[in-house]
Structure formats: structure tokens, C-alpha cells
Amino acid sequence: MDESISYLVERIKEEMFSPSADMLSFLPPSPYETAWVAMVAGPQSPHRPMFPQCLEWIIRHQREEGYWGELGNPMDSLTSTLACVVALNAWDTGHANIEKGLGFLRANMVKLLMEHRGGIPQWFSIVFPGMLELALAKGLPVLPDGGSMPAVNNVFNRRETILTMEKYSGNDRHPPLTSFLEALPISCRPNHEVILRLQMEDGSLFHSPSATACAFMITGDRNCLEYLQTMMKRCSNVVPSVFPVDEDLIKLCLVDHLRRLGCGEHFAEEIRGVMDHTYRYGIVWLLQLVVNHYQIYIYIYIQLLQ
Length: 306
What we know:
mainly alpha; Glycosyltransferase; 58% helix; Terpene_synthase-like; Terpene_synth_N_sf
């Protein structure tokens, strides 16, 4: 038994703390982001997906119940499932997966919205209506039969309130609504010139794979495409919620996770090394984080990696 524990400890040390450890391999994949990257057509072959491996991932990672996303996170499961069925439908593949996903949506959408109607986050109020509209525009029967659905209408009304407030806020929101470019109504999307002006140095929009994929579909900008290609290569064909991510932060999350599991004593030296590095360089990193508000997305991973 002790030998088995020692073997596992050494293996974890090698995978997490060695100089050759690939921190990005610990990032959880996002079905929603994967679906948007899967929708990108090849520049030379518009009738074929640029990243077919994303479609394969979607087909392989549908939950038994029919949804995509995290167990126990209904908001994520609704938006991810909508995006995944739209992506599969776009390339006329995964028909059984589509039907299973549609079945989940029709059976659970209203119930989940009703259960969480008092705690719907702002991102969901933008993304859910946008994805629902996209699915309906593609002819996908995502809504249950039965006429009026106050729970769904409530989210649309909340989106309208947010969009109206945005017009009078001076675009000071962080993150800005354009970071959800793919989910914005067509009438609220910026033009090509503004989209390209929002690009970051790596070619992305706010380090968001989904927003960048949408930006490429709209503009055909090569820098957007190169960002997506780099991400797919660097993350071993897995699409995270945000890219790039500070690798020191990932390491801190892993250290925290090990300590929460009660395994810290087996990695005392490695944890001390990570903490020393953080104390030495963390102040500079935090100052940079404050300057770049959009990096706040990275904090999502603190929860995802727990």
C-alpha cells in the first residue's frame, strides 16, 4: 500500500511540479467554447470544419442525460448544450447526439430556469438568449411545446435591460459586452473595424476562444485564425474557457487543490517552492492583473480546478 502511495506521489510530482510539466494540460475543457471553435469553417474549404477534432470531442463528451457541461451547474449545461447542438447541426453530423441534446433541453430548460430565476448571472442573461435565438434560427426545436414560457421570457427581458443600460454606461463595463460577441444580437454587434480594433496582441478578443471564433467568422481576419490555431496546438486540441492563462496561477490552483484534499504533506517541498516563487514575483503579477481588467476571466479557473 505504501509503495502504491509513493508511486502515485512521485507521478504527481513529475506531472505537476517538474520543469517539463505542461500546466495548460490541467485546464478543464469548455464544451461551450469548443462548440464555437467547431463552427469555424476552413478558409479554403468553407464546407468543411477548420477544427474537426472539436466536433469529435463534442460527440465523445456528451453526458448520459443528454447535456454538455458541468454536473451541478445548470446555467453552464443549458448554454453548452445549445452551443453543441448548433455546432453539430452546422456540419450535419452527430445526429443521435443532437436528438439527445434537444431532448434534454425540451425536458429541462424551463425547470432549470425556474429553479434559478432569482440567481441568474449577467453572463447567462446575454449568452442564453443569444444561443437560443441561434438554435431557433437554424430550425432546431429546442423549446418545449406549451406556448408561453415566462421563465424564458424573463431571461430575454433581463438581457434587454442589460443592453439598454450599456447604451448609457459609456461602455465602462468590465468585462465589456463585446467579450460575448458571439451571443450578442446582430443589431448590437460592432462593425468589422471596431471588432479588429478590439483585438489583443495575440489576435484574440479578450482571450476568449468563442468571441475570437465569432470574430473570425465575421471578419476573416488572419490574426484571429492564428490565435485559434495556436490555442489548439498549445492546449493539445482542447478548448479552455480562456486562453492564454498564467501558468503560475494554474500551479497555485493545483497547490490549493492538493491541500484541500489533505495531500499537502506529501508535497511539502514542492508547495514551498511554488509559494516562494509567488511571494517573490506575485506583487508584479497582481499589479499587471489590475492594469488588465480582462485577465479577471482567469479567476474562473480557481473554481473550475477545485
